[in-house]
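Researcher: Quick one. two chains, 968 residues in total.
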Amino acid sequence: MSMRNYEPVIGLEIHAQLKTNTKMFSSDSTRFEASDNENTSPVSVGMPGALPVINKQAIDFAIRAGLALNCQIRKKSVFSRKNYFYPDLPKGYQISQYDLPICEEGFIEFTVDDEPKKIQIIRAHLEEDAGKSTHQGDYTLINLNRSGIPLLEIVSGPDLRSGKEASVYARTVRQILRYLDVCDGNLEEGSLRCDCNVSVRKVGTEKFGTRVEIKNINSFRFVEKAIEFEIERQIDAIERGESIVQETRLYDPDKNKTFTMRTKEDAQDYRYFPEPDLLPVILTEAQLSKIKLELPELPQQKCSRFQKQYSLPFYDSEILTAERELSEFFEEAVKICNNPKGVSNWMMTELLRELNEAKLTIQQSPISAVNLGTLVGLIDKGTISGKIAKTIFAEMWKTSDHPEQIIKAKGLTQITDPKAIGLIIDELIAKNPGPVSEYRAGKTKLLGFFVGQAMKASQGQANPEILNQVLLEKLKG
Amino acid sequence: MKTTDLSIKELRNKIQSRELSATQVVETFFNRAQSLNKKLNAFITLNERAIDEAKHLDQRLAAGENPGPLTGMPIAIKDMLCTQGIKTTAGSKMLSQFVPPYDSTVVARLKKAGAIVIGKTNLDEFAMGSSNETSYFGAVKNPWNLDYVPGGSSGGSAAAQAARLAVASIGTDTGGSIRQPASFCGIVGVKPTYGRVSRYGIVAYASSLDQAGPMTTTVSDAAEILEIISGHDQHDSTTSQKKVPNLIVPQEKSMKGFKIGLIKEYETDSLNADVRKTVHSAVETAKMLGAEIIEINLPLTQYAVPIYYLVAASEASSNLARYDGVRFGHRSDFHSLAAIELEKFYCRNRGEGFGSEVQRRIMIGTYALSSGYYDAYYNKAGQVRRLLTEQFRNAFQKCDVILSPVSTTPAFKIGERIADPLTMYLNDIFTTSTNLAGLPGMSLPFGFSTQGLPIGVQLTADHFNEEKMFTVAYALEAAAHLSERIPNVNA
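Model:
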């Protein structure tokens, strides 16, 4: 795509739903599967007289996320009211944070096409979600189960320069949040939502162009595509001599286009003011250092540890640490067989392929880490050949059985006894006098033929090394 | 003595000794309330189940249970406090059909102590008013003279209490709404320290100012009620963890050594002569009882009314946003919802559901919070408010309790000031600073005007120092001998 001497400037606002058991300001459940308006109480439906009470777990989660995003954590943060009317906003205001957010001034680092990037996090603040409107013909139905669910809004600096960078940034944030176990990062269920601010400017200019916000994009692929479309649209408009209108747009994935949702003239004055029903959140150094100590290993740390500790290439380490659960699976399997590269190969070539095809997550894998580690160990010990291992793997995938159990049931143990292998080879030599004499006359290329035939005769169970040895000896004559 | 003239303690003794049943007590009050309400318009709703609830209490008493210190006490609740299953209107057309599914903490605590909600009292719409004339359910009459206002916004509670339609009443006070009507109706009215009493379940007017409190015929009755409703509530983060003091039995029996502060800035020419006389006589009584009188300066109190109307209106504009006709509140009679734009839907519901005083305050508040005006109004008001609180803190280094008028005049005539909001707002000149600073304050009956209308004096103490305030109140009450004077209202 051509930039025609323009530089895109992109910033992301990511709304991450925190995995608390109860809502941000009430003891209502946050269970996603609940029936319509089941997870409600006087507080979350905005009943006259109801008051919010801060969920301490949400504060802890926000601090955890803030620390992992290299943010400063405010010792005193304040909730404010953001006032606007909408039918699924039952109080007529959203409790959010405004001038004193809990996390500020952080950054994250990642690479895009081997180029290192450092993106500023301007702030990460806590707020409550609104309800959900469903428009049906003449009516709008409102479900308030989501009303009051805690969100962490993570705002990046205007540091991103392409749709791809933006999507890698968003994926990295998601990965960190999932590692911290504070957000499940499920874009389809809306537990992670992205708003993208996009503008373009002539290369070399300092001043930002007029910015357009693209709201609620529900996949990383669409983040990339929506931004790329929007950049082109803006450059085209400027080239035609038009000016960019500050507005909010929506992305239509079917048409791969963005279109106007509302313009700045409709922009609301939110009349923010400190929420008088809540006291400021005061944090102590002790609280913060306790949470800091409890922070888990983060993806980038884990990736470099995997390279060092397990002597894995960067490529393997990056894939295996992409998800916390995947890395845990790997380490559990390695514990069994002590062959990191072996486990890595089996996971990356066989297991991940199967999981992808079956659309399963690693947690849903029919093959457990212990069983995969055992399988690799059995190969290493020579109990089975790599070829047999594939058969066993397929069986493990089907039945979830332990590999040794499958070997026993199917009689798939490797034949390592040279005498037993000798008998097979004797029979082979007797059956093929022609090729034998050709080999003995110097056509040593025929060795492959004999290996193949012998392996076939052993139903693949012969140990290849011993088979080779015995075969060479017997063919000598 | 008539049952309706007894104090909480006297009634408790009679109920515990079975001289009176809870049913008899509640029935007596209920019948009186039902018949006198036609004149006073003090109640919006009477609790039709009150007598049945009393019967249930009697059964529990007969079974040897002791349901609590307020067993069988009929209490009138301002219609700002949510009562499960009983309409809670906030005096507004907007909520005229609202039946809460839950009890406010104050009501829950009273019920747990054995009290019975006798009814829901009339008030200025959403507690916005000083005369009880802004109620959708009509003006309340002052029991001492039916041509006069009872004050507001807790005018229904004050009138009901003065006319002995309940043993005790609950009001709410955002800028004087307990103390001013208590003064106009000749009863005791206490606004506790902000954070002393839970706001959970009380229709919010101005969240940083609202407090509920007792409105009673005697100081000890106020203490009885306050003790029950006070204390931390997990549903209200702004409630204090501080221990609730024993106010029923005063720690100090005399005012000897007490320093009573008089605010210099409150000596204004606009003070009515009868009010001036009453305050003066309270000061003289305090002196006689051994108190030392100290003059204090609180220059920022001159800004209390404007700050109050900025803070209260701003918070109200947000608190009242939920009444939009979607889930709660009046919904206009639309022929077809499909054809109406969302904005028009809101405008019509809110335009019809709110009265003019409420609309005025929503507009003032919306303006004060608007971008470009926030710093000049809301933010500036907050800064002055902090400084005012600081001045009070310094004042309480010099004195224990501040004594002042409650309002510039005794009760005024119905209709006299309703067309002039500014005069009405200035009525709150002595009461609003107490709310802005979060201090405890109370009104204590101490005299009568030449026209025979009651006049109270205001006592204010430092944060969470209700004990000192009550000590002074007990002493002044004993000297004034006014609690036996009951207005003569005939059905």
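The radius of gyration of chain A is 30 Å.
Researcher: Thanks, that's what I needed.
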